[in-house]
Design a protein that fits this description.
Layout lengths: L4 H9 L17 E7 L3 H12 L6 E4 L15 E2 L9 H18 L10 E5 L2 H16 L5 E4 H7 L14 E5 L3 E2 L2 H14 L3 E3 L4 E7 L2 E7 L2 E10 L5 H6 L7 E13 L7 E4 L4 E5 L4 E12 L7 H14 L8 E12 L5 E4 L5 E5 L9 H14 L13 H4 L16
Parallel strand pairs: 1-2, 1-11, 2-8, 4-13, 11-18
Antiparallel strand pairs: 3-7, 4-6, 5-6, 9-10, 10-11, 12-15, 12-16, 13-14, 14-15, 17-18
Bound molecules: flavin-adenine dinucleotide.
Flavin-adenine dinucleotide binds next to helix 2, strand 12 and strand 16.
Pfam family, one: DAO
Main location: cytoplasm
Cofactor: FMN; FAD
């Protein structure tokens, strides 16, 4: 069933009786060509591109809960490609281009909104750093614009310009950045993959791998053994736990990140803004809630909820930047488990086990990467070689010392 404006009007006039379930609920087959573990954005996108670009039909996505229940449905929905380093910037720009065509590609309204993002500048040194980053973006075909304080004030007059400990001196804008409705991304990719014949198997936990003579033959699950020619792992915050079942120890730690939503307000924030003197980022959802977040909780955890000290820290960041936020009531908050890598950049690679592939280490920037991650992981699974834009995302960079340390923090996962 194709969605269209005509279809919406027809259904509205006929009592909405023609809508069908958006994906099937199949029982697992005994064997697939490719099994993807993890029904988050990255796993589902991988299934979509495997089917659509590489023609694979005999594939399955195995999800231990329900699709969209992980980080893909928990993030603050920001997409952008404002990176500095060579390994990252072309990849994230590729992703942003895929976002721009996503809704047509999967025939699903994911509310892709290029409302723009501004990283605020609070010191001369920060202006230098952001100028450099903006130049790197432009050199890689992305858009970037350096703003002075007056230009920022025109768009966001209510920010604390005058009375602040760290006055706003300008901003680095990326007009093509913005937000995308996060869970709709999971649903859109799931619907598309299902339409190509991929099985999306929910409530099925992978509990182990069957590995013989160095080759992965399939996965043990709560619904029994499922054989596979190849197995791709895309479980984000559960990466360490899952790959441990295959005897691998990853350069990744799991940490909690919280997100917050205020009560609905009249339109006040035209785009996304990030505070450069603390860690705080905010946008306004189409329903009116201010959606914001800040730092990790800072300790290793697999719990999908955080603690009060970080709530306080994030709210202080909000108050320092836009004191009027203190008048809004907090409606809800939650946490997600982040797969924090040692250098803050991801991994899309084969493992030493034949037929076992890995995608993870997305830290708290993996939502914006969803389309490119799925595309590149599908390429790796289908062709057994890295996609040209993801050649840097290999395990061996930790052995050879070729870190992609965007923040320059060193091997300290909770600081990236
Ligand atoms: C609060 C918060 C805010 C964020 N904000 C942003 C942002 O603004 N912009 C941005 O770019 N990124 C953001 N992120 C990061 C982004 O959400 C993640 O990097 C990205 O979603 C991870 O990929 P995924 O969607 O595939 O993960 P998930 O949706 O977590 O998918 C992994 C899936 O694997 C499943 N799984 C785990 N173990 C097993 C198993 N043994 N068997 C079967 N299934 C299993 C899980 O149930 C889960 O559904 C944020 C994250 C959080 C938590």
């Amino acid at each position: 069933m194709r969605y269209s404006g005509f279809k919406v009007i027809k259904e509205a006039l006929t009592g909405h009786k023609g809508w069908k379930p958006v994906w099937r609920d199949p029982e697992p087959k005994p064997h697939y060509d490719i099994v993807i573990i993890g029904g988050g954005g990255h796993g589902l996108a991988t299934a979509h591109y495997l089917a659509k670009i590489y023609g694979h039909r005999n594939i399955a996505v195995i999800e231990k809960g329900w699709i969209g229940g992980g980080n893909v449905g928990r993030n603050t929905t920001i997409v952008r490609s404002n990176y500095l380093l060579d390994g990252n910037e072309p990849f994230y720009e590729f992703s942003l281009k895929l976002w721009e065509g996503l809704e047509q590609d999967v025939n699903y309204n994911a509310m892709v909104s290029q409302r723009g993002i501004i990283n605020l500048i609070h010191s001369d040194a920060q202006r230098d750093a952001f100028t450099r980053r903006g130049n790197a973006m432009i050199l890689n075909g992305a858009d970037a614009e350096l703003l002075d304080a007056e230009q920022v004030r025109k768009e966001y007059p209510f920010l604390n310009f005058n009375d602040a400990r760290f006055p706003i001196k300008g901003g680095l804008a990326q007009r093509r950045g913005g937000t995308v409705r996060h869970d709709a991304v999971a649903w859109g990719y799931a619907r598309s993959a299902d339409g190509f014949g991929a099985d999306i198997i929910q409530n099925c936990e992978v509990t182990g791998f069957r590995i013989e003579d160095g080759k992965c033959l399939g996965v043990e699950t709560s619904k029994g053994f499922i054989g596979a020619g190849k197995v791709g792992c895309a479980v984000a915050g559960n990466s360490g736990r899952l790959m441990g079942m295959a005897g691998m120890r990853l350069p990744i730690e799991s940490h909690v990140l919280q997100a917050f939503v205020s009560e609905g307000l009249k339109p006040v924030l035209p785009g996304v803004i990030t505070f450069g003197a603390g860690h705080f980022y905010v946008s306004q959802s189409d329903k009116g809630g201010l959606v914001f977040g800040g730092d990790l909780d800072g300790y290793n955890s697999y719990a999908q909820r955080g603690n009060l000290p970080v709530v306080e820290d994030v709210c202080e960041g909000g108050m320092a930047l836009m004191p009027m936020i203190g008048r809004a009531r907090l409606l809800r908050m939650w946490g997600g488990i982040m797969d924090m890598s040692m250098d803050g950049s991801p991994i899309i690679d084969r493992t030493d086990i034949d037929g076992l592939y890995f995608n993870g280490g997305w830290c708290y920037g993996g939502f914006k990467a969803t389309p490119a991650s799925g595309h590149c992981f599908a390429h790796l699974l289908a062709r057994d070689e890295p996609h040209p834009t993801a050649t840097a995302y290999r395990f061996d960079r930790f052995r050879t010392g070729r870190m992609i340390d965007e923040k320059g923090m060193g091997n300290q996962p909770n600081l990236h």
